[in-house]
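mind reviewing both lines:
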Amino acid sequence: MTLVSRRSALIGTLGLAVAGCDRITTSPTVRKVLTLGEKATLSGQRLVTDRNALAPEFTTADLSPRFRVNGNRMPASADYQAHMASGFSTWQLEVGGLVRQPLRLSLAQLMSAPQRTQITRHDCVEGWSAIGEWTGVPLALLLRKAGISSNAQYVVFHCADDFSGMRYYESIDMIDAMHPQTILAHTMNRQPLSVAHGAPIRLRVERQLGYKQAKYVMKIEAVDRLGGIHGGKGGYWEDHSGYQWYAGI
C-alpha cells in the first residue's frame, strides 16, 4: 500500500529523486522549502490539533506485503554483534537521566511487561509508506517505573548503529513520550523484530515521520534540554542534514 505524505508531496513538486534518507537534503533549496513547510505544519498542529489524539490504526487486511528497510541494516559495533550472536540474551536497555530510579532491563523483562499491539502506517521522508503491526512496551510505563522527574522535557534515544562513526540518536518531547501509541517494539507482524528492522527493540512514535522511529535502541535518557546532546538539535539527521526536529504528520 503506497500513500502520499506531506513531505513526499513537497519533494514531488520539486522533482527530486532520492535513494535514501541521507540524500534528501543535498539541495539547499529543497532544505529551505522543507524547513519552511515543517515549521508551518508544527505551528498549525500545535494551534488547531490535539497532539494526544491517536494516529489511525488499521486491520491485518491492510498490512503491506513489503515493509522496506531504511537506514542501517546491521550495526557494526562489536558489542551489538556479540548481543546478536547470543540472541540478545545478555542485552539490556538502560533508562536514565532525570529519573529517581535508573533501570537496566533485559529483553525478557520488557517482553513480560504489559504490552500494546497496534497496526499503523509508517511514513518515510523519502516519500513511501507502509503499514505494519507492532507489539511492544509503552514508553510511558517505563518512564513512570523509573520515576521520571518533572524537570524532564525530552527523552533521548541512544542507538547501537552509526553513520560514519557517529552513533545514531533521536529525541521526542514529553507529549509524544507519554502518548499511548509510543512504544518500544520488539515484535513486527507477529514475528521477533529482525536485525534489519532494528532488533532487539525500536521506537514507534506513530504521529511522526520515519526518521524519528529510532532502531537498535540501547539507552533512554530523560533530559531537560537538547542543547548538550551532540549538535543540540535533537537528532542525528537534525544535526547533520537540516531535518526538522518535530516531524509530525
